[in-house]
UniProtKB/TrEMBL annotation:
Reactions catalysed according to its record: FMN + ATP + H(+) = FAD + diphosphate; riboflavin + ATP = FMN + ADP + H(+)
NCBIfam families: cyt_tran_rel, PRK05627.1-5, ribF
Phylogenetic lineage: Bacteria, Bacillati, Bacillota, Clostridia, Eubacteriales
GO terms assigned for molecular function: ATP binding; FMN adenylyltransferase activity; riboflavin kinase activity
The organism of origin for this protein: Syntrophobotulus glycolicus (strain DSM 8271 / FlGlyR)
Swiss-Prot/TrEMBL GO biological process terms: FAD biosynthetic process; FMN biosynthetic process; riboflavin biosynthetic process
This protein's name: Riboflavin biosynthesis protein
InterPro entries in the record: Cyt_trans-like (IPR004821), FAD_synthase (IPR015864), Riboflavin_kinase (IPR023468), Riboflavin_kinase_bac (IPR002606), Riboflavin_kinase_bac/euk (IPR015865), Riboflavin_kinase_dom_sf (IPR023465), Rossmann-like_a/b/a_fold (IPR014729)
Pathway assignment: Cofactor biosynthesis; FMN biosynthesis; FMN from riboflavin (ATP route): step 1/1; Cofactor biosynthesis; FAD biosynthesis; FAD from FMN: step 1/1
Length: 310
């Protein structure tokens, strides 16, 4: 898959272009991209995606946390798996933010070689987000390309949306989030040095510095897995403030990987979250903590064995 910046005035070859933020690349997004891929085969062109980078919210509301479900890097990996031929990265600036819906459609989109556009039912675009899918259809007719508007995908009468997935994760409802995503939710980040207390307790941990702007699920202990050196390694992750050892709130993300020995410092890890095991708690002492950690490890092993049978 090709990833390229947009060069003003450069005309690209004819293609189907999918528009959207695609945060999480959930089942609704997949439905849209599957339709786009089918349309691309029908019209004998490639399927492309246009992404703003950084996310517009980061420029328009710099004082607020984004709580994204996926980084751009993770989106690109998933796009590639879904058969997207090219991703256009459009640098989002104040100038781009002030582009009118018509300028965006008949200028930027047309120059990308669009012969057909695919968008979701709630897509908005142009200055202040005033452009609607109906506007896009009108401008498309004027500028010479078709538009398909994909309606909401539902599970159990619930509309699949990124905001609903965020709500589930902030409540620690991992299984519910997975149903809407179509895969296990995750968190990514770099392994950094910590206090190394886990090593002393017999549970060495990898301390994760999460990628900027990512949503962090509800505090607690989770069963997780990650691909390390080509192998899927299971572990238990703690998100929280380590109240047994700290009275000052300073959130951390620590993972103890089962049956793993090695140096992970400075590595970028993608962590898949399989379930929330319990809330974070303050222990009376080290012995009580170790006893609970052993229970947590057994819970992870049980989940691992269950996954092998499913």
């Amino acid at each position: 898959m090709e990833v390229c910046d947009i060069e003003p005035g450069k005309k690209d070859k004819p293609s189907i272009i999918a528009l959207g933020n695609f945060d999480g690349l959930h089942l609704g997004h997949r439905k849209l991209l599957e339709y786009g891929a089918e349309k691309a085969r029908e019209m004998k062109v490639g399927l492309c995606v246009l992404l703003f980078d950084p996310h517009p919210f980061k420029i328009l509301h710099p004082d607020k946390k984004l709580n994204l479900l996926t980084t751009t890097r993770e989106k690109l990996r998933l796009f590639s798996e879904m058969g997207v031929e090219k991703v256009f990265l459009l640098k989002f600036t104040a100038e781009v933010a002030n582009t009118s819906p018509k300028e965006f459609t008949c200028g930027i989109i047309k120059d990308l070689g669009a012969v057909h556009i695919v968008v979701g039912f709630n897509y908005s675009f142009g200055a202040r987000g005033v452009g609607t899918p109906s506007d896009l259809e009108s401008y498309g007719q004027e500028c010479g390309f078709g538009v398909s508007v994909i309606q909401a995908e539902k599970i159990e009468d619930r509309v699949i949306s990124s905001s609903e997935i965020r709500r589930f994760l902030l409540n620690g409802e991992i299984i519910s989030a997975k149903k809407l995503l179509g895969r296990w939710p995750g968190i990514s980040g770099k392994v950094v040095h910590g206090e190394k207390r886990g090593r002393i307790l017999g549970f060495p941990t990898a301390n994760i510095l999460p990628d900027e702007d990512l949503l962090i699920p509800k505090n607690g202990v989770y069963a997780v897995s990650s691909a390390i050196d080509g192998q899927k390694i299971w572990g238990m992750m703690n998100i929280g403030y380590r109240p047994t050892f700290h009275s000052r709130p300073e959130k951390s993300i620590e993972i103890h990987f089962l049956n793993f020995e090695g140096n992970l410092y400075d590595q970028d890890l993608m962590i898949s979250i399989h379930d929330r095991l319990r809330t974070e708690k303050k222990f009376s002492g080290v012995e009580e903590m170790i006893a609970q950690l052993n229970k947590d490890r057994e819970a992870v092993i049980t989940l691992y064995k269950t996954s092998l049978m499913s």
